[in-house]
Amino acid sequence: MSTSSGPAEERNWTVGLRKRVFGALPPEKLLPDSQPSYVASWIYVFGVLTLSSLAVIIGSGTILALKGPGWWHDSSLGHFFNSVHLWAVELFFFFMVIHLWAKYWMSAWRGGRARVWITGAVTFVIAIPCALTGYISQQNFDAQWISTQAKDAMNSVGIGAFFNLLNFGQIYGYHVFLMPAIVVALVVGHVLLVRRHGVVPPLPLDAELAALGSDPAAVTEEGN
Amino acid sequence: MFAAIFNLNGHASYLSWHFIQVSVPNVVVIVLALVVFVVALFARFPGGHGSKGDDR
Q1: A149-196 pLDDT, tens digit each
Q2: Residue A224: CATH number of its domain
Q3: Partner residue facing A40 (CB), from B29, B33, B47
Q4: pLDDT digits (tens, 9 = 90+) for A13-53
Q5: Distance from B36 to chain A by nearest Cα, in Å?
Q6: Does the beta carbon of B11 lie under 8 angstroms from any beta carbon of chain A?
Q7: Containing domain of residue A85, as a range?
């Protein structure tokens, strides 16, 4: 195998991927040791709080899946982890909504960050059914009631054939694997895109805009 | 602890306005989120001044 950079190496997929990855995310950009001064604000904390909640959700959910419904319904430790899982989800959405509000009002898609915004928004949308399928995975009368009521809503919009709330195995699979895998993949992509483009700067003040000739694009591109 | 303060076993109360119907617990969470959002905008962040410079 040749070590020189030639046409053969240019066609090598591994080399191409390496060049692309390190070109987009050099180590100092992937793992920065400082952030812009404007990040020192409480409003920038809710993204990482959302990530922390997701870690607790995945951890507690893994334990629940390992131990099974008999444990989470009948033992005090099982009740504890069941509650941790529920409240971590509540906090996940609470923090994520505040994070979303903050990013919406500061137009976080500025400066070439459209994909950052889109991955975050899609994560929010996918996380909703991911959480709701948890109600059906409880294995109790509450789950039975919710599934029999909610199936009509699914049927009314024409997705009941492949999203059957009365099919416990299918919905449990959605809840513990398919949807969390999508959410985690989107979150990883979202965080990597934030690393690549940097944290969005605050909106410019009117005075700054006037000084720049009222060209918001000139300000937003600074954040890259 | 909260169960001693609030009755968590009964049905939630609902607020109705025309076609909009929302439970009181949901209203409480929404209002709390708005309050946290506003506080996060204006509360001073520890070490916010004199931190590392703008490296963007």
Answers
A1: 999 999 999 999 889 999 999 999 999 999 999 999 999 999 999 999
A2: 1.20.810.10
A3: B47
A4: 999 999 999 988 888 888 888 888 888 889 899 999 999 99
A5: 8
A6: no
A7: 41-92
Do A67 and A156 fall into the same domain?
Answer: no
CA-CA distance, A202 to B6, in Å (whole number)? 41
Reported in sequence order, the residue ranges of B1-56 that DSSP labels E, i.e. its strands, are 14-17, 20-23
Contact A97 B45 (CB under 8 A): no
8 Å CB contact of A42 and B52:
no
Q: Per the structure block, which two tokens stand in for A5? A: 């950079």
- For residues A169 and A217, membership in a common domain is answered with yes
Residue A149 contacts B where some CB pair is shorter than 8 Å? no
- Residue A90's φ and ψ, nearest 5 degrees, are -60, -45
Nearest CA in chain B to A45: B40
* Least confidently predicted of A26-30, A68-72, A102-106, A215-219: A215-219
Q: Where are the domains of chain B?
A: 2-42
Residue A22: half-sphere exposure toward Cβ, Cα within 13 Å: 5
* Contacts A32 to B, Cβ<8 Å: 55
In a domain, A33, yes or no: no
Residue A101 lies in a domain: no
Task: Report the residue from A94, A98, A198 with minimal CB separation from B56.
Answer: A198
Using only the alpha carbons of chain B, give its radius of gyration.
Answer: 19
- Measured between alpha carbons, how far is A77 from A83 in angstroms, rounded to an integer? 10
Same domain as A111, residue A79: no
The domain boundary, picked from A64, A92, A120, lies at: A92
